[in-house]
Design goal:
Elements (H helix, E strand, L loop, with lengths): L4 E3 L2 E5 L6 H14 L5 E6 L5 H14 L3 E7 L2 H11 L3 E5 L8 E7 L8 H13 L11 E3 L3 H10 L4 H7 L2 E5 L5 H11 L3 E5 L19 H9 L4 E5 L6 E4 L9 H14 L4 E4 L5 H9 L3 E4 L3 H10 L4 E4 L3 E3 L9 H15 L3 H6 L5 E8 L2 H16 L5 E3 L4 E5 L2 E7 L5 E8 L2 H25 L1
Parallel strand pairs: 3-4, 3-5, 4-7, 8-9, 8-10, 12-13, 12-14
Antiparallel strand pairs: 1-2, 2-6, 5-6, 10-11, 14-15, 16-20, 17-18, 18-19, 19-20
Helix pairs in contact: 1-2, 1-4, 3-5, 5-7, 6-12, 9-10, 9-12, 14-15
The chain binds magnesium ion (MG).
Length: 457
């Protein structure tokens, strides 16, 4: 049985095994302990069949602790963040397991700014839950319904782009919402932008039509539909509609790293300012920043880290290479609605096709691998890798999260997993061979350390 994951992005588990109604109610009660008296929480969920049960349990816990709940219904994760600000709520909750398969569900907690909980507050929540001494309010909280999320979200997104310019192009768009939370609001956005929509996997049933992670191997249906309908572009969302990936006009999946890079390139045409992304994201972001003469801030992996760097450095744009764009003019969380609008505006303004915009960016290949590594050996491996590259005067080293080494021919990022005894290596270079070669060097160093440890007994 997989265990209940309790981390910075909230709680996640298999429903009925590790994530039960009891656990959900306890987390509702624990979150209530952290909130001020008379607090209101904005709460939404994705389309998973277990959603209503988890929602009701969490709300029962919050209400028992005296917290009022505004139930937003089936909405995207960025939609909840949007409504926290709109309602001036004390925080938010999203019932979702994001890109995990249907048997999973999760509870994601947000701050009054609509951000994911920072690490110290996530730790505090976990401790309150572990100790399990919850206070019961004399006056239980209330529940109200609010169906305004999509309208407010779409209005805000349309405020950062030229909706008329997009509408005049009458784009044909294929959208794959994987029967998730994007099903309801996204067609409203595309309709407002004058697009002709072919919507596949468009029923908000939570019956995921393919594996939910928006990566190449899961998007054959979308690619085919783009070709069949001779569409201008294809978009795929994950079940909570925070991540977005793009298929070009030829039905080719362009790779998840391009969502952020293309959106960043467009935003920098609108306004100049710093960017932020994590250490595992493509060098395309460095190139986009350099060609606009702005700074790119690299952060540890994790959406909250990118968002807090964006706040700290007053960035105009940021996000993650997994298809997560963050535009602070909308919300400080990843938002597929924003990504769609920016991409369509980029197409409308340049008159170029998706493949042409892709061809304008430098081409790289990424190589991702992992290997088993006892936690005790992780530090040794990182220092050995560091030592191996430190001698090179052209190497730029960043150790904010594992180790990232930037070289003229490419880069590597090695880090230990927080949840499993493994290390991950991500490398990127001009071609697959070169990326593989850098990964091979790292692997060799790691093996020497691991082998040496065995010899030591
Ligand atoms: Mg997601």
């Amino acid at each position: 049985m997989s265990r209940l994951m309790v981390g910075v992005s909230g709680v996640r588990g298999i429903v009925g095994e590790t994530l039960t109604a009891d656990v959900a109610e306890q987390f509702g009660r624990a979150f209530a302990v952290m909130l001020p008296k008379g607090a209101t929480i904005a709460l939404g969920r994705d389309t998973r069949p277990s959603g209503p049960m988890i929602r009701d349990a969490v709300i029962a816990g919050l209400n028992a602790g005296g917290v009022d709940v505004v139930d937003l219904g089936i909405v995207s994760t960025p939609g909840v963040a949007m409504m926290i600000k709109h309602l001036s709520a004390s925080g938010g909750i999203v019932i979702t397991a994001s890109h995990n398969p249907s048997p999973y569900n999760g509870i994601k907690f947000m701050t009054p700014d609509g951000l994911n909980l920072p690490a110290d507050q996530a730790e505090q929540l976990k401790n309150i839950w572990k100790i399990g001494e919850f206070t019961t309010s004399e006056k239980p909280g209330t529940i109200t319904q609010n169906g305004q999320t999509h309208n407010i979200h779409i209005e805000t997104v349309c405020g950062i782009i030229d909706a008329d310019a997009i509408a005049s192009r009458k784009f044909k768009v294929v959208l794959d919402s994987i029967n998730g939370a994007g099903c309801v609001g996204t067609p409203l956005l595309l309709n407002k932008l004058g697009c002709e929509l072919v919507h596949i996997n468009s029923e908000p049933t939570g019956d995921f039509a393919h594996k939910p992670e928006p990566i190449a191997e899961n998007l054959a249906g979308l690619c085919k539909a783009v070709r069949e309908h001779q569409a201008d572009v294809g978009f795929a969302q994950d079940p909570d509609a925070d991540r977005l990936v793009i298929v070009d006009e030829n039905g080719e999946f362009i790779g998840e790293e391009y969502t952020l890079a293309l959106a960043a390139a467009f935003v920098l045409k609108q306004q100049k300012g710093d960017l932020a992304t994590n250490l595992s994201t493509s060098r395309m972001m460095d190139d986009v920043a350099a060609s606009a003469g702005v700074k790119l801030h690299r952060t540890p992996v994790g959406e909250a880290n990118v968002a807090s760097a964006m706040k700290q450095y007053n960035c105009v744009f940021g996000g993650e290479g997994n298809g997560g764009v963050i535009d602070p003019r909308v919300v400080l969380v990843r938002d597929s609605f924003t990504g769609i609008a920016l991409m369509l505006n980029y197409l409308a303004e340049t008159g170029k096709a998706v493949s042409e915009l892709v061809a304008n960016l430098p081409k790289y290949e990424m190589h991702k691998a992992k290997f088993p590594c006892p936690q005790a050996a992780a530090e040794k491996i990182l220092s050995a890798v560091r030592e191996a590259f430190a001698g090179r005067t052209d190497a730029k080293i960043n150790d904010a999260d594992g180790l990232r080494v930037d070289l003229p021919e490419g880069w590597l990022h090695v880090r230990a997993s927080n949840t499993e005894p493994i290390m991950r290596i991500i490398t990127e270079a001009r071609d697959a061979d070169a990326a593989g070669k850098i990964a091979g060097e790292v692997r060799k160093i790691a093996e020497e350390v691991l082998h040496h440890r065995t010899d030591d007994g």
